[in-house]
């Protein structure tokens, strides 16, 4: 992830995003730099308009999908409580049949 951040930093500083520049940013940050990862990043960014990608990411609704699992978890808890109540009732009925 830090490689992507280095590329974004270079882009925002209006510098060319290339292998040497990314490597310098990584070294300046005190991070070990893997030349294979740098090459892979530069190759993957070759056909991408970084400014356009940032705009698309900013427009994407990130919070909406996170809300759905929270609701589902709440529903599961309610269902579990209902099922536990049924099992307790069934257990009570079973015990009453033994004594009566």
Would you kindly provide a written description of the structure presented here, covering whatever features stand out?
The protein is an all-alpha fold and 100 residues long. It has two domains: 1-60, Arc Repressor Mutant, subunit A (Orthogonal Bundle); 61-100. It contains five helices and no strands. Helix 1 packs across helix 2. The mean pLDDT is 78.
Order of helices and strands: HHHHH
The largest sheet is: none
Total number of distinct structural domains: 2
Radius of gyration: 28 Å
What class, by secondary structure content?
A: mainly alpha
Low-confidence stretches: none
What is the CA-CA span between the terminal residues? 69 Å
CATH class membership of the largest domain: Mainly Alpha
Number of strands: 0
Number of helices: 5
Mean pLDDT: 78
CATH architectural category of the largest domain: Orthogonal Bundle
Which bin fits the share of residues in helices? over 70%
Q: CATH topology of the largest domain, which one?
A: Arc Repressor Mutant, subunit A
Outline type = elongated
Strand content: under 5%
